[in-house]
Write a structure and sequence with these properties.
homodimer, Rossmann fold, 9 strands
């Protein structure tokens, strides 16, 4: 399973790298997350320049595609030339977004009338785009999921991992990354947040 | 206040970027975190190449220095030429580390006989280096702090922020980044973990 973490100039490091770091805990199980960008290099909102691992068009080949947020997302959502390069297929892909990334899913027509999550700053723009906003950290409906708040990136990652390898393998991978001394509580919470919206139990 | 996030080849993205993303929520308050590396570019454990914002020697000028973990840390700890470039002064700097980064603080002679945090994989090597390991997410003693588990990076960041701008300004900055719908609980928990070890209350 290959996962594209769509990353534009001005990107929020928390969104792209929490998802990337957590999902790649499953690399030995054949799940790999990579940064996909419209240019060879992109620079984060705090000035860190990174080299893309994949071109933006990788979103068409990937089995899962995640959109983080960034300081230029409103401009990106209105950039038809750029948005036309993002061709997704929810019948065979998992598609997730968080914070201002949710605006891109709205622009791509992927949210329908389901409630979606975003951050407090983006909320009015997402509502303006005709989307109902849920004041929740994470919501999934079928192949589409959204999260709100930078640190909710961990829930998007958990969702992709759960869908890729199941709950118990996800639990094990998250356990490694969770804080020492509070691993069980941390992992149980992430699985509960995601499991609640999947309608599945977080425990065996 | 300037913060160096020391980042080597093979670095763990969660460690470097969670700290960077959270601490830079205080940029408007004059607190800035930057990636400091021994070469112009470094590549993460999952293959993401980033351009350093500062040379490694920035650790001498910075007011706070954080060491994340990575897959080559044991080799780095034994590389005298590299370690000699890291000159720190705990009488005027905050110094923190997590997971295998704790091994570097041990090698720099900064841990003394205080208990330190690290991850489960690094634990035997840290013990071998003569350090007592605490099975806790975070411990601070004076200007030195350690954390264990990738996601405990948020606690190291919280500690730097608290020491830089105080608890309430830290609460506000963390609130922005916390997951929607669980912001208060998330922030209270981070402040409690850090406050407990500072011997300070997490609430006004």
């Amino acid at each position: 399973m290959r996962v594209a973490i769509v990353t534009f100039d001005g990107f929020n490091e928390l969104d792209s790298f929490i998802a990337l770091g957590l999902i790649n805990r499953l690399r030995a199980a054949g799940v790999q997350a990579e940064i996909a960008s419209p240019s060879a290099q992109v620079t984060s909102m705090n000035g860190v320049t990174i080299t893309a691992q994949q071109p933006l068009e990788f979103v068409m080949d990937a089995d899962a595609v995640l959109f983080g947020s960034g300081i230029y997302t409103r401009a990106i959502a209105e950039n038809a030339a750029l948005m036309d390069r993002i061709v997704l297929d929810p019948t065979r892909q998992l598609i997730g977004a968080q914070c201002s990334g949710t605006l891109l899913l709205a622009r791509l027509g992927l949210l329908g009338d389901a409630p979606a999550c975003t951050d407090l700053t983006t909320k009015p723009w997402v509502i303006e785009a005709g989307v109902r906003v849920a004041d929740l950290p994470f919501v999934a409906r079928g192949p589409i999921a959204t999260a709100g708040g930078c640190m909710a990136s961990a829930y998007l990652a958990t969702w992709v991992m759960w869908r890729a390898v199941g709950r118990e393998a996800t639990r094990q991978a998250l356990h490694y990354a969770a804080p020492v001394g509070e691993k069980d509580a941390w992992v149980d919470h992430a699985l509960k947040v995601v499991g609640d919206t999947l309608g599945e139990s977080a425990t065996p």
